[in-house]
Amino acid sequence: MNCTPKSKNMRNKDLFFPFLGNVLNEVMNTPVKEVVRERPVRHTYPATNVVENEERFVIELALPGYEKKEVDIKIDKNILIVSSTKEVKDELKFQLREFNYGAFSKKYTLPESIDKEKIKAAFSKGLLTITLPKVPVKEPLSITIK
Predict the structure, then answer these.
(1) What is the rounded end-to-end Cα distance, in angstroms, of the chain?
(2) pTM (predicted TM-score)
(3) Which residue in 99, 103, 71 sits closest to 85, CA to CA?
(4) Domains by residue range for the chain, with CATH
(5) How far is it, in rounded angstroms, from Cα 8 to Cα 65?
(6) CA angle in degrees (0–180, nearest 5) for 48-86-65
(7) Distance between CA atoms of 93 and 91, rounded to whole angstroms?
C-alpha cells in the first residue's frame, strides 16, 4: 500500500482522516430543519456532581426549571433513585432543540458505609443537593488477655 499523497496540496491529516472533509461538508451544508426533523425528541438527564470526603458523599443535580414538588427521592435497598414525572408541554414548534428537561430517573448505588437514616436533601435555585453521611468507622476493640 502506497501512503504517499497523490498531490503536493494534500495535507498529512488527509492520510488519516480521508472522509472528514466529506462529513464536515455534509453537516455544514444540511439545513437545520432537516437535522432537527430527523432527530426524535428525547429528554436529557440532569447534570450531576458527586463529591466525597471523610464524613459524607454529596450529590448535586442541576434541575433548572423544576420545582421541589416535581422531584422524588427514594431508596430501594442500596439504590438511591432520583426521578421526576414532570410533563413538558410542546406548544412551541422548535427549529432546534438541544435540551428538554422533563421526566427522568437516575439511580445511584449506595456503598455500605452510608447511614441511610441520616440522608438529607435540599432544593434551591434549580440545584438539588443530597447529603449522604457515612457511618462513623469504629476503631477496633482491644481485648486484654488475663
Answers:
(1) 83
(2) 0.65
(3) 103
(4) 13-139 (2.60.40.790)
(5) 55
(6) 60
(7) 7
